[in-house]
Design goal:
The complex is a heterodimer of chains A (about 1050) and B (about 375). Chain A has about 1050 residues and is mainly beta. Chain A is built from 14 helices and 54 strands. In chain A, strand 2 and strand 3 form a beta hairpin. Chain B has two domains: about 140 residues, no CATH class; about 170 residues, no CATH class. Chain B has three helices and 20 strands. The interface between A and B is large, with 48 and 48 residues.
Chain lengths: ~1050, ~375
């Protein structure tokens, strides 16, 4: 009671004092307007707060105007999310104009760590934040495309132009050595980062489990996100930042936050793009009679006997030049490639304030592929709303629905082999027409391919704060995707019988997270933050196919399965999944006056796919941060804006095995005593002690900003990926062939630097640059003991381009024959001093014009023993540049990216020159005049003589497994160039618009490279430029952003 | 202020360099050459023939990293006796330019090879064993004449296979050289003893022996008018490949045809013979008793197909003649032998028509 009296007394005193204070001051009415510093537009919804009372007085209207009653001498604060707070002291002025600028200071950012918003200056992890603006203005089917070169250490290679598909994404180097397929189809299993969209995790590798041989639509889940709806993207790179995301964060985490409503009056924004996709320069081909003459010349000049010359007369397309069938000049590439006109539209409606806001976003995106009969369409409707009546309670929910429709033609999507093969057909053949074209052409152009990926993602999220600092939150989300594909090949394209392929898949993820957080400040300077949560995933997927090889006619396109004889079955694919993951995580974060920060976290992941003896994977991390600019000896240094050092360590542990590797595989083995028997499959021995892959990472970072102009972030890291899955070959006495073991390890180490310079900031003219770069080197740490430090993955295809893993070396090296030039004359061929025979291959001696292939073992015979380890298919340097300029209403920005020091194999060129090996074949011929080819004795050339068709089979001068095709894959690419114009506000108001901006942009504009092929980026992750890949188009775009004037 | 920035930059750069470029602090393994646990040889018993170029492969590196060095160690007889003769050095020809079969003179041929001194038995970097042709029966004792393979008569050795990644010792190779066979076909003497080989039809008859046999086409006997043959049953013609007793210059080859009376038949009778293109020899001397060439040994020089040695491994001595046969048609007859001579010197190839002379007269 005594205490209560004291309280009341105090209250009364306060009131009296306050009224006294008020009564002493004179209030005035201040009118004003809040302008955005960059756009010079009024900013609606800005809170106007009186500093003395910390009381919100009003908010600006749709035009940014406000009117408040304030005491003279008071200070007004103008607060708006995402902007720097600006303050104005009121003396006697009644009309003020306040400019607020977007908050770009790195350290004031709020970032999301373990699903909680945290000030960046108290987190130790290595995190880069991009704003939605960085991924706007260029219409793309997959926003990953636009992240290229913007984040150091995030290596994105847009290596396919196939609409709706993904390129490759790696954060801080290589994390897997799992390669499937052979030859050009060799496919490095992607290790994409974990994507979290508005708090809900998403598996970006979903469509990649079958390598290049995509089953089903193959639409990446990321291709279903409309780029216009993105507010910001946050990239977590080091293990301290990702370890709270558990095993799924082992390859980095990318957090995408979509836009929220934020306007007193509802805003209607519309973005539209019209763009042209142009195929890159295609292969030059000699047409018509030139082709015939070149072939005849080749035969005559290189014939070894008279029969080869006589064969010309027996080859109709060479001899019978007057026959109408052989007298053509058909441009086959033109049959398959096209320039396309495309569009995208996005309409967004949003409104509300901090207390309640809502957003609806409708999007449409349609892109036709530069290869005919391919394309991608996307339809979106995304809605979210947030209700936050006070600081105690928050409720957020979203519903995102999207449909991706893809057309893969007759290819597998990423590969278009049919197009590549038919593009090489002889130009002498007549152009395609339905009655007589080759089946390949019809198959590529007339195959009906209908792919749909329908996704519904819903989420509700609620947070309640029991007492100040202690809050509980819960998230529940459900994500469902239904994938279907139907491919119908008409009879004319498939040997007179139509065929049908049908795919049906579904995927779901039910996700729940419950968190309790507690924030506490002790003694004003000791800040604690505790975050604990648990997560439960329930994931499932099942897909099945069914194939009917012959169906009665072209009109009957289903249902499938009228005839058991021609049914090729299919059934459930191996991507079947039914998994549960349960996780518990906790973190403690402490800082002393935001100067010294320490963070600790621990997370347990239990999954059904870990070995029985290691069911839980334990992820822990430690982070330290020192904001040294807050030290006394630096606080008075005006030039230093901020500065901090970060040191972290963390672990991500991810299960690698599958149920088969832990429990073995059991098959039905027929009957015994009339009883069905089930026995183990003797290929793989079960390994219940299979360990999960452990990724541990150290990171040392430095953030520094000075002179209000320069900001630098440097991170250096060491990342060790241990316990990777690798098959060990067992002795046959065990009865089993293989054991899945954990004896593979990789290390990645490197440095990332990014530098931002705001060179000029003024009323009419802004200029800024940024440059970033990452150096990453990977090293193979260990292999199972019996391999003794080297494992060669032999390529079973005709390319013979083997991969070799050698301990202590970069992980993915090629194993090739070493090309040392071309023998200038016959006399240059070495002679075996013992036998007197010349250097030979397949019992044929090398001669002038043949390649000098290193005789590695010194037996003067080129054979399978003459391979050496060479090259590195993974880039050492990646990075990007950007340049942004604004002059009055004009804006210009440019993004470029570069990749350096990687080896690529130009298989496309090898294939192209090798067309010459058989002049009697109905293939196109290509002009080789641009290449440094050996022509006659004495020539010092790079490329061997390709026309000697008689000896071609034995010498194979253009064999793919030689280092002649190994070239540097370094490039500098101007990704985007955007020129925009913002119309004057007053002008467009007359037309009922609040905002109008038009822009022209390009994507994939130009690539600078010494590479002899078309595009050093358009190569597989193993660095092979394959001729059946999908070319990356160049895009030219005209777009507009407009906002309706829905205010007064 | 500038200097402060510079100082910080320097510190920063230092930190970056220390942390990322120094591999050592990460404790990364060094790359080393790979040497497989499975390096081996497909054949560990070497049976070369002395006096010829023997190149014996069979090394399986299992993709071990080249360069690999090979060292022959621990050479001994099976009973532990030391071996002294295997690495005797001797001058031998090594090729420095490719032999084509188109050379116009002996000097041109000799310019393509040179003499080097090598141990008669060695290994080269490919893992192949070389027994140089400079070895002779005198330098290297051949395997026992009684064709036994007792361990005390067999030279054993081990091979150390080494690269920078490590080394492997492959043990217990055996080398059992056959005595010199200076020419081929060599069915006329025993490969173990060097003594005349028994007649294949009557192997126990000590009075009979085996001969090198020529091929004969359309060769008609002068008296019998039957086709002459040379086979196990009937040997109308046989061939001797033997050192020339006189008239040689150290690098000559003489071709002689003997009649049944053991007297030379005038080579002019073999009117269709292309003497100039038969043997890759120079300075052809044609007498009424023989035709003689200056040649370079061995014949063939290199085992590659040339116009003198179609298949590569054997040169061809073929004599032919024509006559008017029955019905007035000209028939062409020929005979010859596919041969090789490995030992340099003066040699003669003798075709001996034992039973009757060929018929040269027209019908």
């Amino acid at each position: 009671m005594k205490r209560n009296i004291l309280l009341y007394t105090l209250l009364i005193v306060c009131i009296i004092c306050c009224t006294n204070a008020y009564s002493q001051e004179k209030n005035i009415i201040v009118n004003g307007r809040v302008l955005d510093k960059d756009t010079k537009q009024g900013v609606p919804g800005v809170s106007v707060v009186l500093q003395a009372t910390n009381k919100g007085l009003t908010q600006t209207n749709g035009d940014g105007k406000f009117s408040v009653n304030v005491p003279v001498g008071g200070t007004l604060l103008f607060k708006f999310l995402g902007y720097n707070t600006s303050s104005v002291k009121i003396t006697n002025q009644t009309n003020i104009t306040v400019t607020i600028s977007e908050d770009r200071k790195d350290l004031n950012d709020v970032i999301i760590v373990a699903y909680q918003n945290r000030p960046k200056e108290t987190t130790a992890g290595s995190v880069t934040v991009l704003s939605g603006k960085d991924v706007s203005d260029i219409p793309v089917s997959n926003i990953e495309t636009l992240l290229q070169g913007k984040v150091p250490g995030l290596n994105i290679q847009n290596n396919t132009g196939a609409p709706g598909f993904r390129g490759s994404v790696q954060i801080r180097g290589l994390s897997s050595l799992s390669i499937s397929g052979s030859g050009n189809d060799s496919f490095l299993q992607p290790t994409s980062p974990l994507y979290i969209i508005d708090g809900v995790p998403l598996d970006a590798d979903k469509a990649a489990e079958f390598g290049f041989q995509t089953q089903g639509p193959g639409v990446s889940p990321l291709s279903l996100i409309p780029q216009e709806d993105i507010e910001n993207i946050q990239i977590l790179k080091d293990a301290q930042a990702t370890s709270m995301y558990g095993s799924r964060g082992a390859y980095g985490v990318i957090i995408i936050t979509t836009k929220r409503g934020n306007s007193k009056v509802p805003r209607i924004k519309y973005v539209s793009n019209f763009f042209v996709n142009a195929p890159p320069k295609l292969r030059e081909t000699l047409g018509g009679n030139s082709e015939r003459l070149l072939k005849i010349q080749q035969i005559i000049l290189n014939a070894e006997n008279i029969d080869q010359i006589r064969r010309i007369s027996n080859t109709p397309f060479l001899a019978d030049s007057l026959n109408a069938y052989w007298n053509n000049s058909t441009d086959w590439q033109d049959v398959f490639y096209q320039t396309t006109f495309n569009q995208s539209h996005n309409l967004a409606l949003d409104g509300g304030d901090q207390k309640f806001n809502y957003k609806a976003n409708m999007g449409y995106y349609a892109e036709k592929g530069v290869i005919k009969n391919t394309g991608y369409n996307r339809y979106n409707l995304n809605m979210n709303m947030e209700f936050k009546p006070n600081d105690k309670f928050r409720f957020f929910g979203f519903v995102n629905g999207s449909v991706g429709k893809q057309n893969k033609g007759n290819g597998a999507g990423l590969l278009q082999s049919g197009v590549a093969d038919n593009g090489q057909a002889s130009t002498l053949l007549p152009p395609p027409s339905f009655y007589q074209a080759s089946g390949g052409v019809l198959s590529a152009l007339r195959t009906l391919n209908d792919n749909n990926s329908r996704n519904l993602r819903t989420n509700i999220d609620a947070r309640y704060e029991f007492i100040p600092g202690l809050a509980a939150s819960s998230t529940l989300s459900y994500d469902y995707t239904s994938d279907t594909e139907t491919t119908f090949t008409p009879a004319a394209a498939n040997g007179q019988f139509a065929k049908l392929y049908d795919y049906n898949g579904r995927n779901f993820q039910l996700y729940n997270r419950n968190a309790i957080t507690y924030a506490k400040t002790l003694g004003e300077k000791h800040n604690f933050f505790i975050n604990t949560f648990n997560e439960i995933y329930k994931q499932g997927s099942q897909s099945s196919i069914s194939r009917q090889e012959r169906i009665p006619n072209d009109q009957l396109q289903g249902p499938l399965g009228y005839d058991g004889y021609y049914s090729r079955g299919g059934g459930v694919l191996s991507s079947y999944k039914n998994a549960t993951i349960a996780s518990f995580a906790g973190s403690l974060s402490y800082d002393y006056d935001k100067k010294y920060v320490a963070e600790f976290s621990y997370r347990l992941d239990g999954t059904s796919s870990s070995g029985l003896e290691n069911p839980y994977s334990k992820n822990s991390s430690v982070g330290l941060r020192w904001n040294f600019n807050k030290e006394n000896w630096l606080t008075d240094k005006k030039w230093l804006d901020y500065g901090s050092l970060r040191l972290t360590w963390g672990q991500n542990i991810a299960p690698t095995g599958n149920l088969q590797s832990i429990y073995g595989k059991y098959n039905l083995n027929g009957n015994y005593n009339n009883t069905q028997t089930i026995g183990i499959d003797y290929d793989l021995i079960p390994n219940p002690s299979l360990k999960p892959t452990t990724t541990s990472q150290y990171n040392l970072g430095l953030d520094i900003g000075f002179l209000n102009r320069f900001s630098i972030v440097v991170d250096t890291y060491f990342k060790k990926v241990d316990n990777l899955l690798f098959d060990r070959i067992l002795s046959n006495t065990t009865g089993f062939n293989k054991l899945s073991s954990n004896d593979l390890g990789i290390a990645n180490y490197g440095t990332e630097i990014s530098l931002n310079i705001k060179a000029i900031t003024s009323k009419d003219f802004d200029l800024s640059f940024s440059i970033n770069g990452a150096y990453n080197r990977d090293v193979l740490l260990k292999l199972p003991e019996e391999y003794n430090g080297q494992y060669i993955r032999f390529d079973g295809s005709s390319y013979l381009q083997h991969n070799v893993f050698r301990v202590g070396r970069n992980t993915l090296s090629n194993y090739l024959r070493i090309n040392q030039g071309v023998y200038s004359t016959d006399a240059d061929v070495p002679v075996d001093p013992v036998t007197g025979k010349r250097y030979q291959s397949n019992n044929t001696f090398f001669l002038g014009g043949d390649p000098i292939l290193k005789d590695v073992n010194g037996d003067y015979i080129l054979d399978g023993r003459d391979y050496e380890i060479t090259g590195n298919s993974q880039p050492l340097f990646t990075g990007g540049l950007s340049f942004t300029m604004r002059y009055k209403n004009w804006g210009l920005n440019m993004y470029a990216s570069y990749t350096a020091d990687r080896t690529i194999l130009n298989n496309a060129l090898a294939d192209r020159i090798a067309i010459m090996r058989d002049p009697y074949a109905l293939n196109a011929v290509v002009p080789l005049g641009d290449l440094n080819i050996w022509q006659g004795p004495g020539d010092v050339a790079k490329y061997p003589y390709p026309y000697d068709y008689s000896r071609y089979g034995n010498i194979q001068p253009l064999r793919a497994d030689q280092t002649l095709w190994q070239e540097s894959g370094s490039y500098l690419k101007i990704n985007n160039l955007t020129l925009s114009y913002m119309f004057d506000k007053k002008l467009i108001r007359r037309f009922g618009l609040a905002n109008l901006r038009v822009f022209g942009s390009t994507n994939n504009l130009i690539t600078f490279s010494k590479y002899s092929g078309p595009n050093p980026e358009n190569v597989t992750t193993l660095g092979r430029d394959i001729s059946n890949g999908y070319p990356v188009p160049r895009t030219y775009n005209i777009g507009l952003n407009l906002e309706l004037n829905t205010g007064n | 202020m500038k200097s402060i920035i510079n100082k910080y930059f320097a510190l920063l750069l230092l930190a970056v360099t220390v942390c990322s470029s120094c591999k050592k602090i990460f404790d990364l393994p060094d790359e080393k050459d790979y040497i497989s646990n499975n390096v081996n040889f497909t054949n560990k018993i070497l049976e070369p023939i002395i006096g010829r170029t023997n190149l014996i492969g069979g090394f399986n590196s299992d993709n071990s990293t080249n360069p690999i060095t090979f060292e022959i160690v621990n050479v001994r007889y099976g009973d532990g006796k030391p071996v002294s003769d295997l690495f005797t050095t001797a001058p031998t020809y090594v090729w420095i330019a490719p032999y084509t079969g188109l050379e116009k003179s002996l000097a041109e041929i000799e310019a393509k090879r040179k003499i080097e001194t090598h141990p008669i038995f060695e290994m080269r970097s490919s893992g192949e064993f070389i027994l140089w042709p400079s070895a002779t029966n005198q330098i290297l004792k051949p395997r026992p004449t009684d064709s036994t393979n007792y361990s005390q008569d067999t030279r054993f050795f081990d091979v150390k296979v080494k690269n920078t990644g490590g080394e492997r010792l492959i043990k217990d190779f055996q080398i059992r050289p056959f005595r010199e066979r200076p020419y081929e076909p060599s069915n006329d003497f025993n490969a173990y003893t060097g003594l005349p080989a028994p007649d294949p039809k009557f192997p126990l008859d000590k009075n009979l022996r085996d001969y090198i046999r020529p091929y004969l086409n359309n060769v008609i006997g002068a008296t019998s008018n039957l086709n002459l043959v040379s086979n196990n049953d009937k040997k109308d013609a046989i061939v001797y490949i033997r050192p020339l007793t006189s008239g040689g210059n150290g690098h000559s080859l003489r071709i002689v045809v003997l009649g049944k009376d053991s007297l030379p038949i005038d080579p002019k009778f073999f009117n269709e013979t292309v003497w100039d293109k038969m043997i890759h020899g120079f300075n052809v001397q044609k007498t009424d008793k023989y035709v003689q060439y200056d040649v370079a040994y061995p014949i063939p020089l290199v085992e590659i197909p040339t116009s003198y040695a179609i298949g590569g491994s054997r040169a061809k001595a073929q004599l032919s003649y024509s006559r008017i046969g029955f019905g007035g048609a000209r028939t062409v007859a020929n005979f010859g032998v596919d041969f090789a001579i490995y030992k340099a010197g003066d040699w003669e190839i003798v075709f001996y028509f034992k039973n009757e002379n060929p018929k040269f007269a027209n019908e």
